[in-house]
Task: structure prediction
Amino acid sequence: MADRRLIGPDAASTPVDTGAGSRPPRELPEDLLREASDRLAIMALLGAGLWATGTITYHFVIRAMTGDASWASPQLMDLVALVCIVTSFLLYWYLRRSDRDPRFVLDLGLAYLLVGALGIGTVWHLTPVPVDWVIQPTITWVGPMMLIMAAIVPNTPGKTAVAGLIAASMNPIGMLIARARGTWQFESLGDIVLMHYPDYMIVGAAVVVASVMTRLGQQVAKARELGSYHLGDLLGRGGMGEVYRATHRMLARPAAIKLIRPETIGAGKEDGGALAIKRFRREAEVAASLRSPNTVALYDFGVTRDGALYIVMELLEGMTLDKLVRDHGPVPLNRAIHLLRQACASLEEAHVAGLVHRDIKPANIHVGRLGLQHDVVKVLDFGLVKSVAHADGEPSLETATGLMPGTPAFMAPELALGERYDGRADLYALGCVGYQLVTGRPVFDGDLPIHILAKHLHAPPPPLSERTANPIDPEFERLILACLAKRPDDRPASAAALADQLGAIAVDPWTEADARAWWRTHGPRA
Result:
């Protein structure tokens, strides 16, 4: 998935569940669990390297210090090290699989701790000691290993305590094995406990660390609950905030939540906070009124206790047109027409309602599966649209914050110049989208945004047929270039008119069977 906040009862339009006393203990967030499993994989790989280098180095050091050549031959410690190395690699290989259960991985981490502790306890006591050697308290590598595991692979304090006590006991077990082999001598079992009591004390420190890490994770989980929604993975990040996967706690309905940072809209300032929130509510209410099946549905919106704004939208399955072209290249002409006509349906409803999107671009047009249908277009980011006729004459939330409306590579000249505009500014941007869909390239390139804007203002767009080797229907090319006219009056009169003209182009239609076959080959696995 980051500044998650809890929405207060007065701020959210959905009810906030306050029955905390009846809930089960809060689990760690899914993404934090996955991060912990990723860290365990790194630790397993590091453990394999340390066992290998430590064993080899020990052989060389002993031979250099004692001159005993027998240390160059395989020893029992080499077998122990080999088992630990193989175990580490197997754990690393398992954790690299994408279908691992993160909760099971935490328990697997404790098992790995016990295997490592047994290996350390065995190797630590393999070296014979002098007969006059006095048993004294010492800290072995088991102690630091317990602390590291508690910090980077957090588990519950109870499990950490049990696993820690067993791990610390591996040193006494190692001493018992050494006495059975005749390499260690001690009078009583109390001697081995006395020798390794520092490791048992470290178990307490590991439990404290695990408690702190678990509590922090639970606080993150609690802070991610926005009204009736629980935040999950981070899906994307933009100029005004982040988008997270979310789940409705009562309905189990998946959704996407866009969090708008307070500092980007001036909501944290005394003189602008109330006005910014007012604009946000007005624009979100207008966007929520759109009902086109090709417009992303807005479920809910609200304000967090610390002033962050949020919008709850439907969660989509598929990809943006930007990713489609970037990963798979230009699309066939009939498919481009199919996609553009659906975008026109979304824009027509908005324009009739007096709204202008102002940021139509491939990254804001999603295509994917919806139920049994494929290649369904959803126009995104209608949460901050601009009404062409505010009753109170106020600027929109986006322009009030000093952000440029639109993206330079897809911006109509009148928007770039700050002149009056209407829905035909969106048709200009949609023409840029169609241009990129079939050629794989933007209309204008440039090193800096200002250079691209200058070309949109003054340079004629290169014909599509000159930018691609794929066949381009002349009528489609004429229509796209008409959308890219500098003067709004020279463009199609409306999104509906553009859709009709696209539908009249004599090409074989892009069918549901075509779309289904494409998604079966190239789409994400269901």
The mean pLDDT is 79. The longest helix spans residues 30-66. The chain has two domains: 30-213, 318-526.
